[in-house]
Amino acid sequence: MLTCIVNISEGSRAEAIDEIAKSAGASLLDVHSDPWHNRSVFSLGGPDVLDASTRVARAAWALIDSSRHVGVHPRLGAVDVVPFVPMSSYEHRGSVDLEEALLAREEFAHFAADECGVPCFFYGPERSLPDIRHHAFRGLSPDVGPLHPHPRAGACCVGARSVLVAYNLWLESTSLEEARNIARALRSNTLRCLAFSMGGATQISCNLVDPWTIGPAQAFDAVAARASIERGELVGLLPEHLLDMIPASRWLELGLASDMTLESRIAR
Fold this sequence. Notes:
Elements (H helix, E strand, L loop, with lengths): L1 E7 L5 H10 L4 E7 L4 E7 L3 H15 L15 E8 L12 H18 L3 E4 L5 H7 L20 E5 L4 E7 L4 H11 L4 E8 L2 E8 L7 H9 L4 E7 L4 H5 L6 H4 L7 H6 L1
Parallel strand pairs: 4-6, 5-6
Antiparallel strand pairs: 1-3, 1-4, 2-3, 7-9, 7-10, 8-9
Helix pairs in contact: 1-2, 2-3
């Protein structure tokens, strides 16, 4: 079984987000939206994941004009990131068989390019998502589809990867420059982080690339050693085994709860 975490460049218009969510059908496990990032994350799971991801993408492309997008989060298109993730990577650390995810990545990219004219960049074993953000259309051509961005939809990054946890830390009385220095000091192959200023607040947005090594608790503590944290915020879902590794006494502090796992949503 695969999961798919579709990131779209819309976090403000509730009606549009709801319509896109409905297109996912029974595969929809979670929706997280943020108006400052102007981004929504749709977590999909179950046997219909590939079809659900194409339905979500089609609905998003019909409703979003990425050329008019305003938000702090970097993006290439209206449907910005579509990673396929094996369920097995939620169950243990270590090497994961990506064969099924790679096949789904290929099929989604050809759907996007052939039916919708949206160029797609592959990430996963061959390159990272930051590599694409830095080099897309500037020395790096799309793997599938047109050589130039779609006028409304832009481009799409389609991935095959292991589990990743997206986690935001909202800071107290910390300037953007200080937050950027913290993000720069902590950034590594297993912890990707960016600092943003949003409506007078400052946030360090983290991608925990190897959450079994650096999970929410470790990221929280690393930032807390350098700045006061107002709250932690999980974006999407996390593995049940990972939550079990964190003392339950810390869940509230970290912004976590038992119903925030992929397994609990699938069971529900």
